């Protein structure tokens, strides 16, 4: 075991801030955010800020409101209260266009794998010939599946296609909602490597995961959500060594949270 | 009155001998119904798709109306079409009464609500699945509509076949506006009604058999389409 604090002094960050152009360009500011459905409060008066250059992992027990929070940040649903500002601007279509989201349950068109990619490339006027899409397929090991109906793929293959499709849009901000749930170790490795490459290229990534080991491998910053409230926001090394909230501590210890 | 045995024999002779009167009647039936179906789809699919993805006050009432109109009694449709097309009616100047055009109009009125109601249901189901992903991708409205129609194409083909089945088999509407005029507006169903009442069972039976074969072909096509859609997970 190495001492995280000591290590930080020698190696400030895996990815130095200055290596990324337009640092802070996609900072997120959330103020007094609430969301309720049928009088049932799902998110309760949340406020936090995220810098634009860190890989943020969103953790929390089932039903804490993680997926709802991602959908709010992506502008898919409107908050009951409060504001969400991306680089000072409220979310609109033009901001959503530089974002991409991989849903917890992938939604694929009733078409072939290749046609699913073609569809999104067409939306942005990007190249979409088979040979031009080949690298995107290859990146997530889908090239042998190009002509298969997307909805007949296995769960892991569908997740990989959903990620490939999101990355094809070259997003500046990427939301990933449990992209590795129920995947085999090789697929998890592939997806994690891809996430790391995206991160190095300067994409702001917000990842929801239940896998504590995965969070350790990827996170630079942790947001811990519990019963619709932010229990804590901490740099990853602090979070895993000494979480400040009792909810996060209980979660990491594997104690059940109600 | 022929006995049933000889009626069957004569019917088969008419069919296998490609009797010209028989062929003319079958041909007109198919032409009228295909024309009505085409117009119904051109009108009904866009309306169904628009209803499927939109929300506005009165939408619920509109959906209920179209669902109810799926079961319109053909004779009532015939009566309405007759009143529109007769000399005193708003479309009287077209002089369409007792022509195949009148029958196409009547069947279009009959089939369009079916196309609207069923396609609305199918596209609404698909849209529920796609809507959030499309919002995430910022898909422009026309592109989203085209994608929904394309990806629902197998389901929509079965909708069209349902409309076809209803139109080809109905008798009340085409009888009223067509008049069952020999060599002009006589179609399978009106011919069956007339020949049966005249006691000429052979022609009626021959047409009835052909109608049954068409119904079976339609159902086989529906099954084939569903099987293909399932196999490719397009449904
Ligand atoms: N559309 C909805 N209607 C009603 N309740 C919802 C809806 N979406 C989410 N919820 C509820 O909100 C809570 C948080 O959901 P979610 O964000 O999906 O949790 P998770 O943190 O596991 O992703 C859950 O209790 C869920 O049942
Ligand atoms: Mg979730």
From TrEMBL, chain A:
It comes from Stappia sediminis. Belongs to the ABC transporter superfamily. GO terms for molecular function: ATP binding; ATP hydrolysis activity. It holds the Pfam family ABC_tran. This is ATP-binding cassette domain-containing protein. SUPFAM superfamilies: P-loop containing nucleoside triphosphate hydrolases. The keyword ATP-binding applies. The lineage of its organism: Bacteria, Pseudomonadati, Pseudomonadota, Alphaproteobacteria, Hyphomicrobiales. Coiled coil: none annotated. Residues 28-252 form the ABC transporter domain. Keywords: ATP-binding, Nucleotide-binding, Transport. It comes from the Bacteria. InterPro entries: AAA+_ATPase (IPR003593), ABC_transporter-like_ATP-bd (IPR003439), ABC_transporter-like_CS (IPR017871), P-loop_NTPase (IPR027417).
Automatic annotation (TrEMBL), chain B:
It is found in: Cell membrane. One of its GO terms (cellular component) is plasma membrane. InterPro entries: ABC_perm_TupB-like, MetI-like, MetI-like_sf. Keywords: Membrane, Transmembrane, Transmembrane helix. GO terms for biological process: transmembrane transport. Residues 26-222 form the ABC transmembrane type-1 domain. It is a multi-pass membrane protein. The chain crosses the membrane at residues 7-28, 34-53, 60-85, 97-118, 154-181, 201-222. This is ABC transporter permease subunit.
């Amino acid at each position: 075991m190495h001492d995280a604090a000591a290590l930080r002094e020698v190696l400030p960050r895996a990815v130095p801030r200055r290596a990324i152009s337009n640092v802070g360009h996609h900072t997120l500011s959330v103020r007094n955010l609430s969301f309720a459905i049928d009088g049932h409060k799902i998110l309760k008066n949340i406020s936090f800020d995220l810098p634009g250059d860190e890989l943020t992992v969103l953790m929390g027990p089932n039903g804490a409101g993680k997926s709802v929070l991602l959908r709010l940040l992506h502008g898919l649903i409107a908050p009951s209260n409060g504001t969400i500002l991306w680089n000072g601007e409220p979310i609109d279509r033009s901001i959503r266009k530089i974002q991409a989201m991989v849903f917890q349950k992938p939604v694929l068109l009733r078409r072939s794998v290749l046609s699913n990619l073609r569809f999104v490339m067409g939306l942005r006027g990007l190249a979409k010939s088979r040979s031009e899409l080949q690298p995107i397929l290859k990146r997530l090991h889908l090239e042998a599946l190009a002509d298969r109906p997307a909805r007949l793929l296995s769960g892991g293959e569908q997740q990989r296609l959903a990620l490939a499709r999101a990355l094809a849009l070259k997003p500046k901000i990427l939301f990933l909602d449990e992209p590795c749930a129920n995947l085999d170790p090789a697929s998890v490795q592939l997806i994690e490597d891809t996430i790391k490459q995206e991160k190095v290229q300067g994409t702001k990534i917000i990842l929801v995961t239940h896998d504590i080991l995965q969070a350790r491998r990827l996170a630079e910053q942790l947001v811990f959500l519990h019963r619709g409230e932010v229990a804590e926001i901490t740099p990853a090394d602090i979070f895993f060594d000494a979480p400040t909230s009792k909810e996060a501590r209980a979660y990491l210890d594997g104690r059940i949270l109600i | 009155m022929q006995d049933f045995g000889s009626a069957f024999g004569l019917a088969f002779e008419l069919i296998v001998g490609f009797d010209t009167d028989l062929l003319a009647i079958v041909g007109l039936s198919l032409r009228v119904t295909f024309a009505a179906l085409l117009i119904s789809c051109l009108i009904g699919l866009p309306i169904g798709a628009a209803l499927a993805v939109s929300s506005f006050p009165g939408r619920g009432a509109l959906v209920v109306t179209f669902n109810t109109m799926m079961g319109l009694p053909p004779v009532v449709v015939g009566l309405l079409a007759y009143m529109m097309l007769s000399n005193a009616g708003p479309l009287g100047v077209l002089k369409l009464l007792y022509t195949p055009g009148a029958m196409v109009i009547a069947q279009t009125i009959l089939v369009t609500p079916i196309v609207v109601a069923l396609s609305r249901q199918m596209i609404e189901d698909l849209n529920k699945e796609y809507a959030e992903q499309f919002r995430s991708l910022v898909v422009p409205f026309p592109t989203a509509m085209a994608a929904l129609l394309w990806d629902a194409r197998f389901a929509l083909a079965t909708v069209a076949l349902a409309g076809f089945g209803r139109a080809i088999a109905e008798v009340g509407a085409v009888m009223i506006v067509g008049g069952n005029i020999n060599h002009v507006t006589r179609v399978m169903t009106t011919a069956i009604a007339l020949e049966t009442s005249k006691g000429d069972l052979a022609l009626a039976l021959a047409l009835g058999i052909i109608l049954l074969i068409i119904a079976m072909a339609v159902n086989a096509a529906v099954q084939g389409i569903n099987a293909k859609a399932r196999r490719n997970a397009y449904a």
